[in-house]
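To whoever is on call:

I kicked off a structure prediction for a single chain this morning and the downstream step that reads the tokens threw a length-mismatch warning. I double-checked the sequence; it's 338 residues and nothing unusual in it as far as I can see. Pasting both halves so you can look.
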Amino acid sequence: MKRPPLAVTLGDPAGIGPELTLRAWTALKDRRHDFIAYADLDQLREIADRLHLPAPRACEPEQAGEIFSQALPVRPVPLPEPARPGHPAPANAAAVIASIEACVRDTLAGRTGGVVTNPISKAVLYEQGFRFPGHTEFVAHLTAHAAWDGPRGPMMMLAAPELKTVLVTIHLGLRGALDALSTEAILHTARVTLAALRTDFGLASPRLAIAGLNPHAGEGGALGREEIEMVAPAVETLRAEGHDVAGPMPPDTMFHAEARARYDAAVCLYHDQGLIPVKTLNFHGGVNTTLGLPIIRTSPDHGTAFDIAGRGLARADSLIAAIRLASTMAENRQSALT
């Protein structure tokens, strides 16, 4: 049975998302990664005309597969105000949010197979009362996740062919992240990651590495005791549960090629510890994905890029990678559950 198409959100219409959606369709239209954009039809048709591409067509998700090889399928989400590249409009914030909500709703209903989110401007949305730190937490809220903002909230993975990292703390300042760390939080992150590696990435026996916090992983307590008091107990518990887990690993030596060959994903304790190595190894090919949800959700690993929006300079590599990864994850999850 043919899987339903992926749902791609609008993102901020003044950013590079709409153009990248069309460029991604151009790259994928002859492959088996069907998707439907939840976006403003007039804006996409204007961009398609400028790029000399076929005019996108309005349809429902059920018709997207029939259309995809000829034109970008679109489920229209009208903008109250025409989008101007590089100039975000607060008046369009409600449409940005509505696009995400519709994509999640249709995926929960089985009409679409997963959600790929284009970049949003959180500053613009905050002005309109948006109360979530980002996509990760908002999508978790929309899927009725039990706790979207605590130690048992959603997990953020940054994935590239070279490396996958998962964060124990996400969008917190460094001082706040240190306060939020605990053995419980590390255990929850590791367990969700191991389950996702099996179900969504097709790994029967996943191997996990858990990073230390301090220089040289604390050097036996001489440079900090977090490894002894928080990380090591989590590692011991996971091993007792039968998992293949290494750690606490010194953060400065766990990301070179030889070390990466010994694990499938790394649990990192704070934002930059996990994102810097992936972005250094593959800046244009990284994908942000949310683990532990009832739906698949991925996103390109870049922002709105207002400074280059509408200038034809944006690269679609990360969005294409996000669509491909979501498609693979959906296929793996379907196989695991049948």
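Update from on-call: the warning came from a stale cache, not from the record. Cleared it. Sanity check on the structure: Confidence is low (pLDDT under 50) at residues 146-150.
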